[in-house]
């Protein structure tokens, strides 16, 4: 299983939607065991500064940026599917 990281901000409405999609999708047994490291860029600015992105939410799978900015449920599912390959 690949590592997944999500960069977010607590006040970001798009991040809240992405987290909602993750919660829904991880109820599916095929995605249940995907571990997602969630980094709040305001609370962990040094860690966030190590990565190249501008908008949140931003997803990385095994260190590769796969999504930046608002996401659809289908996009989040594609990210989880990539993690379980």
Keywords:
single chain, about 80 residues, alpha+beta, Glutaredoxin, 3 helices, 4 strands, about 35% helix, globular
Q: What would you note in describing this structure?
A:
The chain contains 3 helices and 4 strands; from the N terminus they run βαβαββα. With 85 residues, the chain is an alpha+beta fold. It has a single domain, classed as Glutaredoxin. β1, α1 (13-25) and β2 form a beta-alpha-beta unit. α1 crosses α3. The radius of gyration is 12 Å and the shape is globular.
Q: What does this entry show, briefly?
A:
The chain has about 80 residues and is of the alpha+beta class.
Q: Estimate percent helicity.
A: 25-40%
Q: How many helical stretches?
A: 3
What is the topology, as strand order, of the major beta sheet?
2-1-3-4
Question: What is the general shape?
Answer: globular
Count of the separate structural domains: 1
Number of strands: 4
Q: Which stretches of 5+ consecutive residues score pLDDT under 50?
A: none
Secondary-structure element series: EHEHEEH
The residue-averaged pLDDT reads 97
| Rg estimate, integer Å | 12 Å
* CATH architecture label: 3-Layer(aba) Sandwich
Oligomer: single chain
Let me know the largest β-sheet: 4 strands, mixed
Tell me, what is the CATH class? Alpha Beta
Terminal residue distance: 7 Å
Q: How much of the polypeptide forms β-strand, as a percent range?
A: 15-25%
